[in-house]
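Quick one:
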Amino acid sequence: MLTLALIVVLLSGALAFGVALLVRRRATKLGLVQAPNERSSHTVPTPTGGGLGIVAGGTLAGLPMATLDPWVVIPVLIAGLLIAAIGYADDRRSLPVSWRLGGQVLLMGALVALVPTPALQAAIGLPIPDLVLFVLLALAGALWINLFNFMDGIDGLAATETIFILCAAVLLAIASFPQLQGHPLTLWMLGLAAATFGFLLLNWPAAKLFMGDTGSTYLGLLIAFFALATLASGWLTLSQWLILPALFLADSLTTLGRRLLNREPIWQAHKRHAYQALQRRFSSHRTVTLLYVGINLVVLLPGAALAGLYPQWGWALVLTVYLLLVPLALLAGAGATLQPETDK
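Output:
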């Protein structure tokens, strides 16, 4: 089983790199060269759509799981391909927000429907009616997809965050349940991480290729599904899943909240997240990406591990993490109005 796992992981990474490289070489013909815009932190036209490689590798990684539970996994694989197709169309020619958001909500709702409701209710620990829980999870999943997409704005950031979340989740699950080594679901998660790494080889600063909405929305959807699946299985707790992506959530939600308080149209593109403010301050994509990786490893991984070891303290740990990260995001400049000289 471990040999099969290694083969699948290596093939997923190699396939992702190969497809991403092909996209980069043919980006002009495909209409996937992204010019700098009001959201961009780059200054020269750069190929996008590299997320096609992640989609290819992630789909390959899911096939072993499909043989075990086809009635759940095949719909997930199809949902992933559909949301990637929407993202690809948006990468080539901007789609209306209502189309994108509607598709995300519908696809997320389809994934929520695949997971046993009683198991999710037990994992969440609140007596929520089935229909209310379904709606809340579908909307929360769609929100997460968009927040993840918002955080894909500098070289290497979204890819390294994905690798961290998936590998950390697998590590924590196996630490609690050693029998999960080689399980098809953990293999799928590691395969998707490997596919993301294959893309990262072309996205590491200075990036030669961006993942685009093709990749960011696909990753957001798959991470949401893995969270639901591991919650329902009892492998990980809700507090752990709130801690692992806390850096992205604190940055994006703080920025969103500050813009709402200022009565700004939140659907308009911008570059006012904390990570973008830090990139301007340091004049370096690599520095900010490594800073986020460091916080993930030094703060969030131990925090999620403690939440698993001491579940009675899970919510206290979640609160502690966000009380640390939200002020740091504000201090870094999350949601702050750009100065005229910065916006030139």
